[in-house]
Amino acid sequence: MNKGQRAGDSALAIEVEQGKSYYWCSCGKSSKQPFCDGSHKGTEFKPLAYKAELTKRVFFCVCKQTNDQPFCDGSHNKK
């Protein structure tokens, strides 16, 4: 799968709740980063579902270049 367009140059720290599902934007076009708003329609991209196993802070990728979707792996530092 191709990587989406850059939506930012850093990770976003989000407090997730145990048992709740989150839908990460993989295309980079969403206005609600890092989450999907449906902007991928008509493209090859689809949101990636993530279900939180614990309530905790996680770092979601915004640059869309990560190899650890939906999480940041530092790829935003490799412009």
Q: Secondary structure elements and their pairing?
A:
Elements: E1 12-16, E2 21-24, E3 48-51, E4 56-60
Antiparallel strand pairs: 1-4, 2-3
Short key terms for the protein model shown above:
two-stranded antiparallel sheet; mainly beta; globular; two-stranded antiparallel ribbon; 79 residues
Textual characterization of the structure:
It is built from no helices and four strands. It is an all-beta fold. It starts with 11 loop residues before the first strand and ends in a 19-residue tail after the last strand. The mean pLDDT is 95. The protein is globular and about 30 Å long. The protein has a two-stranded antiparallel sheet with strand order 1-4. A two-stranded antiparallel sheet has the order 2-3.
Task: Give a short synopsis of this structure.
With 79 residues, this protein is mostly beta strands. The chain has strands spanning 12-16, 21-24, 48-51, 56-60. The model has no long low-confidence stretch (mean pLDDT 95).
Task: Work out the number of β strands.
Answer: 4
Mean pLDDT level: 95
Helix content: under 10%
Helix/strand/pairing category: mainly beta
Distance between the termini: 19 Å
